Each structure stands twice: as structure tokens, then as C-alpha cells.
Amino acid sequence: MDRPKLIKVIGCVFVLLTIASLFMVFADNDLSSEKVLSEDNETLRRAFVGYLEDEKLVHLEVLSTLEGKPPKLTGKLGVNLHQDDVDDVPSPNVSFQPQTTVFTWDSLGIRLQISRQSDTDRCHVIRWTSTHARPLEDCFLIGAASWYGGPEHLNQRWPIEKLQLKELAYVPSQPNNVGKTEPFWFNSDGISIYVNASTPLFVDVRNHRSDGLCLIADDRRPYLPRAEKLLQYTLCNFDNPRQAYDYSVDNFFDRPAALPDRRVVEFPVWATKGHYSWSNKKVNQTTVLQFAKDIMIHGFNYSQMEISDNGASCYGTTVFNTSLFPDMKMLTTQLKGMGFRTTMRTHPFVDEECMEYGPLKDKGYFVVNERNEVGMHWWREERWHDWENKKGLIDFTKHSAQQWFVTKHRKVLDDYGIDGFKIDNTFNTVGNGWLSKEARLNCPVEKQPHCYIQSYVETLAELGPIPETRVSFRTQRHAMFVRMLDKEPIWEKYGIRNLITSVFVHNLHGYPFVIPDVVGGSKWGGYGVTKESFIRWLQAICFMPVIQFTTAPWDFDEQTVEISKELTALHYRYSGVILELMQRSVDTGAPLNTPIWWVDPENDVAHKIDDEYMLGEDILVAPVLEVGATARDIYLPQGYWREENHRHRVFEGRQWIKNYPAGLKILPYFTRVHEYALSSEQKWKIHRRDKIQLITV
Q1: Closest CA to 130 of 37, 217, 194, 39
Q2: Of 60, 62, 340, 603, whose CA is between 20 and 30 Å from 689?
Q3: Residue 429's pLDDT is what?
Q4: What are the boundaries of each domain within the chain?
Q5: pLDDT > 90? residue 117
Q6: Partners of 168 in the beta sheet?
């Protein structure tokens, strides 16, 4: 490496030059930096910035409050200011205002303002505006910290520095395997970043820079051109990740307004699609009734029966296929007599073959593209031949289309005795590339395309407490379940291992009411679901809010049936706790299922654990996620923890339990033992040896 360059920093945010001159040494070709001259302790929580003449960018640094520690965050702001074809980028004009530093490049039409957040000295607002064609881009060094947040991704790596994203457009996208897109990141050092909703955001992780998280603002598709580009985000510096989350949930997220349906939490949902649709049997009135009888015969509880797509005469209509369901009202009455509620799948689009298509098109209820055309094609694969017809996507940004959709579905509830809906394929239609690239929506340019997602979720909320959504953007306030992306029936990425990391992303973005994918995974053609993966999957989600079956336990053997009944009974036993914690989420914004660092937020080991999770603060769950495994290592955070599987032994936290026995019937989980509940003798027994000492209480 060449000799480091000594650069004078021309300002430090909110402290400015009145305290002392500030000099930095910057290493070439990376984001790291070393402070040469010390400042007084009061300044250490604040961000320092300076312009680098050689690199034509702004350097930002958040210092650590601990002496001798490297900066908590370093960043290069405006990395696109200097490009290979532009060598004469001028130095900015710099002005200092109370609590604010402003950089302006008048010839480029670019302005950077860094301001202290009005309610706390912990946060700064970084705001770029530009009328120039080039994108705006700020990059931060990931470093040694563990990073959390970002999009819900089919391959949900945790912490997110394990994931690589290449200029990902930050909208739901089926081609990119992205569902929820809350623009929030934070790390184990207590740094958080929340991006303004009007930013046309792209995210790049470990691509532009091998150890960088880059935020890019550009008005290329899926965003629309705008007169002025905006890159704005709030950067905060707290002591640990829990503090960072707590501030964000109080200042950036809405809290859920109420609880969704309680019964879905208490008892499993049973869906016909997996049990029949991928076999030679048709889903019809007879098979649905028989499925309900089989559930009861095998001794399972249930909240509702979900009838799959074959119930409708065409995709997007609420007219039932009378050849399959000659009397839907009779079927729902029979199911109610057995204790089942009935839900049906419906869609946010209408197939061209449906009788409603023409009138709805004439009324302007469909999304149109920039050429005022209606219609989309997607899933063009042989196995998806039913989806090849043109479809009209309901434009939920139009109030008249919203009301038509709600009125139509409420009529089904009244006419047929249906209790609720599962609005399906939103991930595939909203994020299939057609909406995001071509749509012209009924909302301001700076709110597109996210306004469609928000309007869609608002519409679903009018259909009661049962509906669920698979897409979201700043919609935490709705009393609605959010469903994970479909998981494949496999053990590694895309499968069972992603259940826990996915529930983390939802909860830490303010969406605690999570529905995991169906037990065993969404099987395509019956491929992949085995007895072992089915049982381990059910164990993994047992302490999450909802259990859904579409593959039946009796599709395997009697042992699977018995283990499944034990696990659903365990879930019911703790459903009261789950509902209490859900109410706490409504009241305080607290998450429901979190990483274990939630109860030990400055524990470096806990920061990296991705295969254990908490229910609240007193229950730790450590399912087996490896094929063929009959034991696993378990890390316990600080405190005392009682195992609930074997002899109710107590373990002291901040230690590993090696090779904890976990045969196929065992779901390892632990409950907190409060220190005041332990006698002095019990504490002495726990502490008396270096290795973990076990006792029974």
C-alpha cells in the first residue's frame, strides 16, 4: 500500500471547528480510517465529516466511546461524484449552520446536508439532493460488526454480511426473490440506518465494495423519472443493537393497531392445496369434506380450512366452479358444524377469461403501463400453463377499484358463509417485474411503486382479521398476519434453515405477526418432503405465532402423527404467552421472536447465532436444522436457563452446551429461571466448576 495521505477535515458535524482542528489519516483503497488527534469525550458520539480532494468524496466517521477502539462506522459519501469520464469535479462549497453542515457542488446541481436529529444527539439526517444524471451513492464499511435488517430474501442469510446483493432495487420482486422491503439496517455496535421512503433506493452489499453496504438513489426502473433525485437517511449511534431497534420502533415504524385473529394463533390452519393439488386427486366438495373428517379422526385441532385455487371458476373471480363445488354454502355449513371456519384463496388480478375482465377494464380498475395498456404475462413455464393467459392487475391506488374489490369479497362472505380470504400470488404479481417496471399508478411519482403495496395492504385490512400479506412497505400498523416467502422442502438455503432467519427479519422490521411457510415447505410436485424434514420443520416453528399444514402428518406414518399432535399441543399450551406478547407488540412495538442477543445485546457470540430464537424474553428455542442430526450445540445468553426436555436441569448462561441430545422426538427449548428463584446453594452448585454444572429445580 502507498504511503497514507494526510488530509485536513474541513468540518465536524455539530461540533464544527470551534473545538479543535481535526486531522485524519486515510488508508488508500478502503473505507478504514485512524484518528490522529483526540477530541473531548463529548464529541465522541457524533459524526465527523471531511472532503477528500484526491478521491472527490466526503468521508464520514462515527467514533467509539471506548478508548483505543476503532471507529464504530466509517463511510464514503458521494462515491459517484467522481467518475472515470469526469476528471474536473470541483471541490464543494461548505457552510456551517447551527447543528448542520452543508456541502454544495453548484455546477453539478448537487447538495449534501448533514443535520443533527432534533430530538436526540444520537442521530443525524444525511440528505443528498441532485438534478444531475448520475446516481447518488453512499457506502459504509461492514467491518467486524454483525449487521441486521435489509430485505426479506429467499436465501435469508444472517447476519446480512453473509449475503451479497448487486444493486438490488428495493421493492418486492419475484425475479429477485425479495418479499418485504423495509429500508432499515442496524448492527451489533448499535449503529442504525433508516432510509427515507421517498428515496428511489437500490442496495448493494459486498459487491461494489467487498466489505461494503452501499445505498444508491437512482430514478431508473422500477422507479419513475423525477426532477430531483433524493438520497436521505437517518444515521444513529447507540450502545448496542437493542437500543438501536427500540429507538427505531418509536420513531420510524408504526406499531400494529390491534391483534389479528386469535384462533389462528391457537390452532393450526389446514390447507387443501398440498394434500390434494399435487396428487392425482382433485380438490372438490367431497375431498374437502373428507379432509376435514380425516383431521378430526386423527385427533388434531384446527382453526380453519383453506380451500385452494380450484374453488374458483377462473383466477381472479369469486364465482365458484360448480363442477367441483356444486353447493359451496352447504359445504361451509357442514364444516361449521364440525368446528371449522372456511377460507378461500383469491387474487389481486383477474384473468382475461373471467367474465369480469372486460367490464373492469372499461372502468379503469386495472393497472396500466406507460402506453396505457392493460395486461401482464408471467410464470411462462410448462408446469405453469394455467398462468399463461393475460391478466389485469387491480389498481389498488384507485379508491373506486379498492371499493369494488372489498364489496365483491364481502358479498362472498355473506352469500356462501366463507369466513375469510387468503389473497395469494401478490408476491408474484406485485413483484413480478411488470408492475415494478411499467406501471403508472394513482399516487405521486416519489411514492411509486411502494404506494401500490401500501394501498393493497390497506384494502386487505378492510376484510377483517384473517387476511395475510406476503408484501409490505411501512405497513406495520395494520392488524394483519404477514406470511414468509415460500420455502423449499430442503435443509439448506431456501429451506428449513431459513425459517428462523426469516422470522428475525420480519420481527426486527416491526412485523411480529408472522406466518411461517407450511410445515415441510411448499412442495412442488410432491418433491422433497420427508418424515424427518416434516417433523423438524414443525419443531422449528412451534414457538412462532402460526402453524399451517398442507401436507398431512398421516401422509407419513403413525409416529409422525403422534409427534405432530404433541407439538401442536405444545404450541397451544404456549399460545396464551404468544398472544400476550402479541399484545405487547401492539402496546410497545416490542418484537415477538428475536435473535438471542435480544436478551444479551452486547454479547459478541450471541450476535452471530442464526439457528436459535427467543419467544419474548423468557423462552429460548434451539431446533435441530441439520439432516440426520440427533444432537446439537446450544449457546445460552446471560442468565439462568432451565431445559424443558429432559430433567429440568438449570444451566448458567453465556456458555455453550455441547452435543445436547435431540432425537427426532425432541425440540430443545429452555425457560428463564430468575436469579431470585434460586437458593444460594443452587447458585453455588452452578458456579462451583468451570464447566456447566447441572441441577434440578
Answers
A1: 217
A2: 603
A3: 54
A4: 5-251, 262-588, 595-696
A5: no
A6: 203
Measure the CA–CA gap between 168 and 147, rounded to whole angstroms: 17
Q: Could you give the dihedral angle defined by the CA atoms of residues 155, 160, 163 and 164, in that order, rounded to the nearest 10 degrees?
A: 130
Could you give the C-alpha distances from 327 to 277, 319, 628, in angstroms and in order? Answer: 20, 12, 47
362, pLDDT greater than 70: yes
Sheet containing strand 481-483, edge to edge, reads 468-469, 481-483, 514-515
- Please name the residues in contact with 617: beta carbons below 8 A apart, sequence gap of 6 or more: 598, 599, 672
Interatomic CA distance for residues 221 and 207, integer angstroms: 20
**Cα–Cα nearest to 130, from 82, 194, 81:** 81
Segment 584-643, tens digit of pLDDT = 999 999 999 999 999 999 999 999 999 999 999 999 999 999 999 999 999 999 999 999
Reference 496, options 484, 509, 505, 510; nearest CA is 484
Spatial distance between the Cα atoms of 435 and 428, rounded to a whole number of angstroms: 10
d(C-alpha 191, C-alpha 607), whole Å: 14
Q: Which three cell numbers stand for residue 524?
A: 412442488
Dihedral pair phi/psi, residue 557, rounded to 5°: -155, 180
Find where cell 431470585 sits: 676
Scan for cell 377462473, then name that residue.
314
Q: Which CATH architecture has domain 5-251?
A: Sandwich (2.60)
Please state the rounded mean pLDDT for residues 325-353.
Answer: 92
pLDDT above 70 for 384: no
pLDDT at 463 over 70: yes
| Cα-based angle 311, 313, 317 (whole degrees, multiple of 5) | 95
- Confidence (pLDDT) at 228: 93
Cα separation values, 430 from 317, 437, 480, 523, Å: 18, 11, 18, 23
With residue 566 as reference, give the H or E element that holds it: helix 558-573
- Residue the block writes with cell 463529548: 42
**Strand-strand pairing, 304-307 and 341-346:** parallel
Considering 20-29, 330-339, 494-503, the range whose residues carry the highest mean pLDDT is 330-339
CATH number of 595-696: 2.60.40.1180
Mean pLDDT of the chain: 83
pLDDT of residue 181: 83
Run of H or E including 560: helix 558-573
Query: In whole angstroms, how far apart are CA 71 and each of 63, 140, 215, 301, 362?
Result: 4, 12, 20, 54, 60
The sign of the CA dihedral 36, 39, 44, 50 is: negative
Q: Is the pLDDT of residue 428 over 60?
A: no
- Decide if 391 contacts 350 (C-beta within 8 A): yes
Q: Taking a C-beta distance cutoff of 8 angstroms, is the pair 558, 596 a contact?
A: no
Q: 305 in helix, strand or coil?
A: strand
Which residue from 267, 296, 339 is spatially nearest to 570, judged by alpha carbons? 267
Number of residues in the chain = 697
- Average pLDDT over every residue of 221-227: 87
CB atoms within 10 A of CB 10: 18
For residue 270, pLDDT over 90 is answered with yes
For 266, which DSSP code?
Answer: H
Least trusted range by pLDDT, from 370-374, 439-443, 473-477: 370-374
CA distance 342 to 384: 26
**Residue 672: predicted pLDDT:** 95
Which cell goes with 335? 364444516
CATH, range 262-588? 3.20.20.80
Using CA of residue 577, residue 620, residue 530, residue 502, what is the dihedral sign?
positive
Query: 262-588 with 595-696: one CATH topology?
Result: no
Does pTM surpass 0.70?
yes
pLDDT for 512: 96
Percent of the chain whose pLDDT exceeds 70: 83
